[in-house]
Each structure stands twice: as structure tokens, then as C-alpha cells.
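Appendix B: complex inputs.
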Amino acid sequence: MQFLPLEQLNIDEKILKILKDRGIEKLNPVQTEAINKGLLKDERLLVTSPTGSGKTLIAELGIISHLLNKGGKAIYITPLRALTSEKFSELKVWEKLGYKVGMTSGDYDTDDAWLKNYDIIISTYEKIDSLWRRNPSWLKEVDYFVLDEFHYLNDPHRGPVVESVAVRIRYKNLLALSATIQNYEEISKWLNATPVTTDWRPVPLKEGVIIPEKKSSYKVIFSNNESINIKGNDAILAYVNYVLQHGGQVLVFRNSRKIAESTARKIASNMGLFKMDKELEKISNEIKEVDDAGTTEKEDLAELVRSGVAYHHAGLSKGLRDIIEKYFIQRKIKVIVATPTLAAGVNLPARSVIVGDIYRFNRQILGFNEEIPIMEYKQMAGRAGRPGFDKEGEAIIVVRNKSEADRVFKKYILSPPEPIESKLGNEASFYTFILGIVSSEGRVTSDEVEDYAMGTLLDKDIVKSYLKKGLNWLRDNEFIAGDDDLVLTKFGKRVADLYINPFTAKTFKDYLTRNEKSCNVAYLHLCAYTPDGPRVSVSRNEMYDLVDLSPCPLFIEEPDDEDEFYNYVSALKVGMIINDWIEEVDEDIILGRYGIGSGDLRSIIDTMDWLTYSGFNISRVLDLKEHAEAFYILNLRVKDGIKEELIDLVKVPGIGRKRARLLFENNIKKPEDIIMNVDKVKSLLGSRLGEKVAKDAARIIAGNA
DNA sequence: TGGCTGCTCATCTAGACAGCATGTC
DNA sequence: CTAGATGAGCAGCCA
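Resulting structure:
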């Protein structure tokens, strides 16, 4: 284990100064090792090391030294939007050297052409993949790529994109950063990169299991053979109390939202000691004021937080999650019970991590519960130990008995995580990959496509069979044209640019060409039924009601197959949710009616916004005028959750579904009406907002003219 | 007949990327 | 192989 004092670093003074200003005196062993392997000399590297071991700084040094020596541009790619903005603020300090730092991702988007003004761009894998398909000229100037959280390659859903991006930068400078993986040698060979691997962590990690003993007693056994006895009637409760008594914070992971919530409640009712804390009272009130969440969820959470406990999952609105994360980092909130959201996302460490469940329901293998991958456990355990606060972090797994304890200990604590493998081996992913290649190249021979495909991690024989099938399928369905000289058709190019799954495009095409215009629910159902559509769970009770609820004939016929029927009904539920949304049904009512959280609603709306826009474009490129018209209006309504009559009003910034409705009911129906009745608008919206809205309305009208 | 208790059995289950128009964070 | 919380439904009991 070697620490390298900054003085010994052969690096530009300007860089040193910035590092010193940040309080960095020496580089840690991982960083030192990366430098020894050529980080500052543009060596292609694959760094595998635990969470929180300072990989971001490695990336920063790599990027900056490259820019200083060679100029050009650098792109830093992450798998999550939240990480993209986190890295953006971290990399911002380098603007002191005159470099411009920018970011772009789905929810924080920047015009393609504008990106040429930045030297360092932070983005997501999907966004970069999408950008590549359009191939703006500045992209060729980018010659340094950081691929963060590279182990996402192993994710069945997101992995194919990570792999596609990696394949494209075979001949550029590359720095791949990953959690610890078993087969790093194989992967680095594939990437043509030098491996840098260590187990060094800034805060040592103690892993263990908690086992029930006699009655009201638990034993915790750690990997260093230490063990402690704890009293209590519930393993999680007992351990949480133990940690709190020693002044630590706890992150508890559970495998379902409902269980996370009830565990949080159980812990809260056991936390008399923090009740009536003034700070917590304040946070509780702040939660009640959040404006993007449902009333019930705010009240539930506000009550819990009064005890210093919160739950956290994707059903919660962004606003609620932000508050919880913020006050946990400030150590006001002592315990968070979370689903796996927090395992992979932003940096949110705690002294202790409790992994409540090692099993997880799996829809594919019904009635069968699978054990979570070791990699996932390591991600959760990796959150243990706060640098600067805790001397050591601890992660414990809850088990049921002694024999399970032995097995779990061996598997999760003593074994390395699974090897990571290509996830391109399925039709949808592979065909998408080919489509992307043809799109960015503009015109390619099938040999060149094969050359790209052979560069993937996929087994060569599998590549060959998929390639043949894929090219035929894409040709048969009119995405590409030409036998040897391949180009995208107009339809194919549109699909590539919209970034929809080719099977989504085919679904649109098939049903739209075959059917006449129908009602909104039919269009929404079609969007939701595509492979890109949002999936919602449907209970047995809902299932049959939903079928009767549909207000008009749908484009898709009711399937006989049980699984397909479920997808059909799930899509119908999405259709009904969005239909309520665009009929201006109150948000609280929607959440209650369909049993979803405000975070779920938000994500369904976002996806359906994208898909209705895609439906519009697909209809247009196929020259289906009636469908295009219907999708166009529908898309505008889905964006803001409004009836058609409010479309003009919401064009004014600051006016959403609620304000637009208020104005409309008071006979202000167009931006022009706002300007004509500024006093009325001010009395309805308050004078400051009214003033601003009037100004923006004037600008919009001027823009239209 | 009405209401409560306790048991059995069926039911249910994580997460999050993308377009475009905005302004350019 | 490798789950567990929840809630509806119902039998049984008592007043």
C-alpha cells in the first residue's frame, strides 16, 4: 500500500495548486497505482476498486493531463443522471484552468450543437450512444473517454449500451472505472487496457452476519472473527439500536417498498430518544411543504422523520428523496430504510449497513425466489463507513439460522463477485446495436458492421448468427436498405434518432398502418404496450375491471396467452393513468386510484411523453396523417397533464396544469389574454409571478409573430 | 344476530435510460 | 434448491 505525496508527482503546477486547495496532500494507493500504470500518459486503463476509493480523482487527473498535453475534448460517462450531475459539480473546479465543463442527459439536456463549446462533457451512456448516432462534427474532436461504473456492462437492461459505447472507442484514449470484478483480466484484455486493481478502501470495512440465538438474543459474527451479542426480538431493530447507541447512522436495505416502509415504522416507534427534537420537527415541516409529492406520502414520511427515521424508494418524488438524502448526510436523520435505489446512486455513506434480505422476488421465474447477485450485495455493503467520520464501516446480513449463516457468509462475504459478461446476446439489444452503427457511419459495408460486432465481448459464433439474422430482420422491416452497402431508410433514421427500440418502432408501424384513428386511450395503450413502454404492476382485482374500463376499441387485440395478457392489461393501466392525467384529474386522486407513488407517476409521464412524441414522428415518416395529428395533440397534453384547451397557456414558462386551469376558468384563455389583463393575472397568481408571466407571454407572442 | 379473535390462505413484490424545446446551469 | 409481510375470508366463540 503506497501513498504518493503530491510533491513527488510529476505534474503541472496549476493542477497541483487546485488539488492542494481541495486539501489533497497525497494520492491514495489506487490513485498511485493508476499513475504508475501510465494514467498521466494516456495509457488505456481499466481501474477496478471498491466504492469510494477515489476513482473520480483518477478520472480528473486523466482528463486534465490529457487536455493539457494534447488538447481536444473529454467525455465522462456515467450510468445514472444523478451521477452525471454529481460528477458535473465535482469537475466544475477545473474551470479554473480555463476549461469549460458541461453536462447533458435526458433531464438536463443541452442542444447537440452547443456541446462543441465545452472541453469536458459529463453525460450518460444512453445519451452518448444517441449522440453518436447523429454524429455531430465536434464529437470527432473528443479523444479522451471516461467510462464510469463500467460494471453496468453486466446489467441485462443497460449493459448493451455500455458495451456499444465501449466498442466505439477502441481507437481512442480510454479510462474505464469499475467496482471490483472477478474477471478484470479478461475485460481489460478485451478493452485493450492495462488493469489497475486494488482492494484498498478509505475506511476499512467489516462484514458480518446477524444470527438469531436463544430467545430475544442475536449473535453478530464478523469476517475478522470478532463477534458480539445483542438483545432484542427483531434482528434489524436490535442492530439499529446497537449502532445508534454508539453514535452511528444506519442504512437498512429491504427488498420491497412496502417492507421498507413498515420496517421504517417499526424502527421509528422504537426511537423514543429522538422524539420532539426541534431540528427534526423542522425537517418534518419541510417535508409537508414539498410541492412535487402526494399528500398521503408526505404525511407518512413527515411523521416518521420526527423520530429521525425515513424510508426511501423510487415511488417517492424527487423532492422528497432529496430532502431525505440531504438531512441524512447532515446526520440529522439517523436511519434510512431503502430499496436498492440507494445502493447504486449518489454517494450516501453510513457507518453501518444492514442488508435485510438476500432473496428477491423474480417475475421471470414465478414462485421462485432468487438470491441477489454478490455484486449487488457488495454495492450495498460498500456504502458502509463515512470517510472522515467513521474509523471503520460495518455491513451485516440478516439470516434466519446457523446453517444459512454459513452458506451466506461463504457466498457473499468470502467470495468475489460474479464475472461480468456481455448482455448483447438477444435480438432487441443486438439489432439496436447494428442500427446504431449504421446510423453513425451513414453508409457502411456489411463487413464493416461485422468488424464492429466482432469487437464486442460477445462470443464470435453468437455474433455471426445474430448478425445474419439481424441484418435480414432490419432489411425486411425497412430500417435499412442495400445488400452490401448499407444505409438507413428514412424510417430507420428516424427510429435511430428517437432512440426507441426497433421492436417498439415495428409495433407502432404494424398497428398504425392496420388501424383507423381511435380515441386517446388506444394511442396511449399502444405506446405503453411497446417494449419501451412503462411497466406497472396490476393486481388480480384490477385486471378484469380494467378491461371493461377502456372507453374505446384498442388497436391491440386481447391476447390469450397469460403473460401477454398481463402485459396488455398493464399497458391499459398505464393508458388509464395517463388518460386521467390529461383529463386534469387531481394528482392525489390518480395516486390513490391506481396505487402508485408520485415518483412512479412522474416516471410514467416522462416515458409516455417520449413515446407519444415518437408515435407522432413514426406516423409522420410513414405518412399516416390522421395518426400523426392525434399523437401531436396527445403529446402536448401528456407533457403538461392538460386538456386540449390549455395547450396555448402552458406555452408560457411558469404556467403548468394548475395555473393554466385557474387562468382559463377566469376567462384568460391565451397568452394574448394575459397581456390584455395583467392586473387580473396578478391578482390570480400573485403580483410577482403575474408580472413575470406577463413578460414571458409577451415574449412568446413576439416569437410567434 | 352482531361483533370480536385468531387462524389459514391467496396475493404481492426494485430500479431508471432515452427525444425535443428551453436556455446555456 | 432459495421468502415473508399483509389482508381478506371464515370458523368459532361470547353476549
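The longest strand of chain A covers residues 205-212.
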